[in-house]
Amino acid sequence: MSLTYTQEFPPKNINLESIIALVGRANASLSRYDGLLESLVNPQVLLSPLVMKEAELSSRIEGTIATANEVYQQQAGEKFAPEKDADIHEILNYRSTLRIAGQNIYDSPLSLHMLREMHANLMQGVRGQDKNPGKFRNTQNWIGPRGCTMKEATYVPPSPLIMNDLLEQFIEYANIDNETIDPIVQAALIHAQFELIHPFDDGNGRIGRILIPLFLVRRRCIVSPSLYISGYLESNRETYYQYLDNISDKGDWLEWIVFFLNAVVKQSEDNLLLVRKIIGLYEKKKREISDLLHTDQAIYILDLLFDTPVFRANELHKRLGIQRQRAAQYIRSLKSEGIVTEIRPSRGRTPALLSFDDLWKITDQQ
Question: For 42, phi and psi rounded to 5 degrees?
Answer without folding.
Answer: -130, 70
